[in-house]
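Help: why these numbers?

___
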Amino acid sequence: MANSGRMPMLTRVHARVSSRTQGEHGGIGTVRPVALLLPLVLVAGLLLGRPALPRVFGEPPVAVAGASSARTQLDNGAAAMATAIARGFGFTVVSRSTLYARPGGPGIEVPDPSDPYTVAGTVDSLYLGGSAATGTVRGGDLLLQMYGGDIAPEGPVEIAALEPTLAALVTGGTSWRNDGEGWYAVPVELLPGIGLDPRTVALLPGLLAHAQRPATAAATVLGGRALPTVTATGSVADAPGLMASDAAPFTVLVQPISFVFDDQGRLAQLAAVMRNTRMADADLLVTATITFDYASPGAIPAPAPTAPPPAAPDAGPTATPEATR
């Protein structure tokens, strides 16, 4: 039976956080034929039984424990990051998105698994899905490959099990984008990406050096080792691409950033929780975890094969208005 234009529940949620409401240049908000950054593949029955994730709003506590040594760790890490950018490093980004009902507001609607056009119930929080990226930085050059697929709300992510989607490349002073059919040159602001983009990479030393209210936190186990961890408040101005390459205008950091350092004082992992301010009726929280690899950063490839850029949208009188797409 036809649905007469009815939009499935999850599609309606995604429509509110995509395209013009979450970015215009291929980051978290641009919906391309080859990928969606917020996969909405959900099992409603499981979600109805999932406990609400902890909320993280409010002012962070005043951080005093180990402030002096934590400040030193951040400053040393900033210097080490400047050196690492020049020498090169690899990285992995995992991003996860969850909708939270606001206090006193409506619950988050969950679709009936047998009919996505019907509401099965409401919940306090709804995990939307995740995306991932791997990449390499070498001086001013960068390679970033994004992935979509089934990413659980927590736990390790197996990149090999995911599907490659969009990719970004900066080499020889030229920026390239790949939507799945080949590379084509674009302005740097049109590069896709999550976690790290060229601007954010260049600002990483400043993110560490400018972080405020540092505190020593419990050690983080990474690669089987317990590594020193510092929490500190950061600024989106020092990490504009942390949520996505085009998301800085609607990104708010809602709790201190977690900085994990290896035994050489280099940043081993960064974890942040952000809120997308363009959601009108719920709170969309995005967690981003970036893990750094200094041992085997990989190479920056040539942009091959190339492909013609996509055709510009039809701007004629018969074009569908943006608000109705």
User: Anything to note?
Assistant: The helical segments are 9-17, 44-49, 67-87, 198-210. The domain at 9-54+66-303 is CATH 2.50.20.20 (outer membrane lipoprotein receptor (LolB), chain A). Residues 1-7, 11-64, 319-325 have pLDDT under 50 and may be disordered. The longest helix spans residues 67-87.
